[in-house]
Amino acid sequence: MIQSVAVILTVAGGQITGFGFSLILLFLGACLLVGICWQLIDNWYARVHGRDWPAVSAVIDIVSVAFMEDDSIIPPLKAGSYNPYYQATLTYIYHYPEKQMGDYSRSFGKKEDAEAWANSYKGETVKVHVDPRDPTRSLLREEDL
Q1: Tens-digit pLDDT profile for residues 76-116
Q2: Are 17 and 87 found together in one domain?
Q3: Tens digit of pLDDT for each residue in 105-125?
């Protein structure tokens, strides 16, 4: 792949220097890192973006656990590596100004752990942050559980 980039740059009208080559590697590394960490970046953005939204009380009404296949776009490091997991979801109801619904999910390796965690929140009152421009959008932050 690196040779392909070098050939393209050379044919495109210039000779690649060591510095240019380093910049290309740095750019490719950054793209790879963003691709690997996309979920972390997305979660961080959601927490930062919603922290200034008004907080309202919500009641966790429905809890569920689902078996999930590993849907990672990155191939496993070991051959034959398979990482299914269980996703526990807390569904909450809040009023802002009308009745709305939202959910929060967390992944677990064992079904029993996911069920125990989810069931511990059934019927609990929590604080959620609601988008003032779109009351159907809400965010339950991990620190508010």
Answers
A1: 555 455 678 999 999 999 999 999 999 999 999 999 999 99
A2: no
A3: 999 999 999 999 999 999 999
Burial bucket for residue 106 (CB in 10 Å: 0-12, 13-18, 19+) = middle
136: in domain: yes
In a domain, 65, yes or no: yes
Q: Residue 101 in contact with residue 91, Cβ under 8 Å?
A: yes
Which of 67, 66, 70 has its CA nearest to residue 83?
70
49-87 b/e (C-beta count within 10 Å ≥ 16 → b): ebeebebbebebeebebeeeeeeeeeeeeeeeeeeeebe
CB 86 within 8 A of CB 68: yes
